[in-house]
Design goal:
Elements (H helix, E strand, L loop, with lengths): L1 H7 L7 E4 L5 H10 L6 E5 H7 L1 H10 L5 E7 L3 H12 L5 E5 L4 H10 L4 E5 L7 H7 L6 H14 L4 E3 L5 H8 L4 E4 L20 H7 L3 E3 L2 H4 L4 H16 L2
Parallel strand pairs: 1-2, 1-8, 2-3, 3-4, 4-5, 5-6, 6-7, 7-8
Helix pairs in contact: 2-4, 5-6, 8-9, 10-12
């Protein structure tokens, strides 16, 4: 099970996900090459996948056969459609793939049944949602972490192997669901990093997310926009090692 593998690893890079959020394959390949050995998973999201499709993952894997991939499409549709989409993606041999927990239990079950060897992660609440947006989405809930926990419970009932949640929900999710689910946390903002025009609203540091119980940290712009990306990644890895006593 991938959660156990990550938790038992003594290599801090196994806890780091880097999103290849760039517009073309040349930039993606260059970034992956620059960060080779420093990143546990390369995340391929909507922008890159829509532009270049499955062929991009083949190119990246050819450059680095040991690389692991996280296909982050956040699927949200009727169960049959999501199931077929996951089935089409499984031949890519990615390790992680995402669906929206708000799609419901039956949709998530269809994804899990079609996933084969990939771990299905359910996205709870996007880190871009600020309090006003959350009020529109969840007007009857006093606690946003409670709403995230309700979505997470549905995901686990459906058989999802992990959850995607902001640093602000990790403590609640661990308290409710223990060590079973893999927790993946975007919105990581190191104290030494300054991100211009940041659309992430619910964020946290490396230390706060890991200490709360996160397994995988998604760190994009603090690395991608750094003057020296390899040095920025190394600083993240040092913080991971220190926090986890690796």
């Amino acid at each position: 099970m991938i959660a156990k593998q990550i938790r038992n690893s003594k290599n801090p890079s196994d806890h780091l996900v880097f999103p290849l959020d760039v517009p073309n394959s040349e930039m993606a390949v260059a970034l992956a090459d620059e960060l080779k050995g420093r990143v546990g998973f390369f995340k391929v999201g909507l922008e890159l996948f829509v532009a270049h499709g499955p062929a991009l993952i083949d190119v990246l894997r050819e450059k680095d056969p040991s690389a692991r991939f996280f296909l982050d499409l956040k699927l949200h549709d009727i169960p049959a459609t999501v199931g077929r989409a996951i089935a089409a993606a499984r031949d890519l041999k990615v390790d992680l793939v995402t669906v929206h927990a708000q799609g419901g239990v039956e949709m998530m079950k269809a994804a899990v049944e079609a996933a084969a060897g990939a771990t299905v992660l359910a996205v709870t609440l996007l880190t871009s949602l600020d309090p006003a947006s959350l009020d529109e989405l969840t007007p009857d809930y006093q606690s946003r972490s409670l709403y995230a926990a309700r979505l997470a419970q549905r995901a686990l009932v459906a058989g999802c192997g992990g959850l995607v949640a902001s640093p602000l929900e990790v403590t609640e999710l661990r308290a409710r669901f223990g060590r079973e689910p893999l927790l993946v946390t975007p919105g990581i903002r190191p104290t030494w990093s300054s991100v211009a025009s940041d659309d992430q609203k619910r964020v946290g540091t490396v230390e706060s997310a890991l200490s709360a119980g996160s397994d995988l940290l998604v760190v994009g712009r603090p690395i991608r926009d750094a003057e020296c990306r390899s040095e920025a990644a190394d600083k993240i890895l040092e913080e991971i090692a220190k926090t986890l006593n690796l």
